[in-house]
Amino acid sequence: MHTQMITEGELIYAAQIQFTEMFDFGVSMEALTTGEQTIPPEGARFDQVFQGELLGPRLRGKMSGMDRLYIRADGSFQLDLHARLTTEDGARIAFTSNGVSLQIEGEREARLRAAVSLFTSYEAYRWLNKLQLWALGTMDPVKNQAFIQAYTL
To answer: What share of the chain is helix, strand, coil (3-state, %, to 5)?
Structure first.
């Protein structure tokens, strides 16, 4: 597949992600969400381990990684994801994504917005190296799940 076959705004993949573990660094997420504790002046940091499935149309396979989530003192969520994608035919692709999670008052799900970069030296997937993707999605904090769609810019 060649990059000239990719059009701007094209859906590359949809992903279903399940967060499986969370590690804190002195402030628990539960204490923050219940109001037992406020966000400290320096913010709060969490490592969220996740796994998921990529559901084409251009890229299909499994992913696993970690989101180095930072909650700023103003309550904004900054996302910093690093993962390994494994395609259905066994190719491995490095995945990085940076963005924000926006909680809308009165809504259970948070909105996710992020830039995504991919890298691999597997010949069949090198076309991904030249793309910048824009990911849009939602995160359900009760189910610890996210659904994301990634498009070319």
So the answer is: 10, 60, 30
Q: Strands 44-57 and 11-24, how do they pair?
A: antiparallel
Q: In this structure, what DSSP letter does residue 6 have?
A: -
Are 97 and 135 contacting, i.e. CB atoms less than 8 angstroms apart? Answer: yes
Peptide bond into 141 cis (omega under 30): no
Backbone angles phi, psi at 30, to 5 degrees: -60, -45
Count CA within 13 A, CB hemisphere, residue 29: 15
pTM as predicted: 0.92
Print pLDDT tens along the chain (153 aa): 444 578 999 999 999 999 999 999 999 999 998 999 999 999 999 999 999 999 999 999 999 999 999 999 998 999 999 999 999 999 999 999 999 999 888 888 999 999 999 999 999 999 999 999 999 999 998 899 999 999 999
- Please report, in angstroms and rounded to a whole number, the separation of the first and last CA atoms in the chain: 18
C-alpha triplet 55, 11, 135: angle, nearest 5°: 85
Token digits of residue 55: 């559901």
Alpha carbons 143 and 32: distance in angstroms, whole number? 17
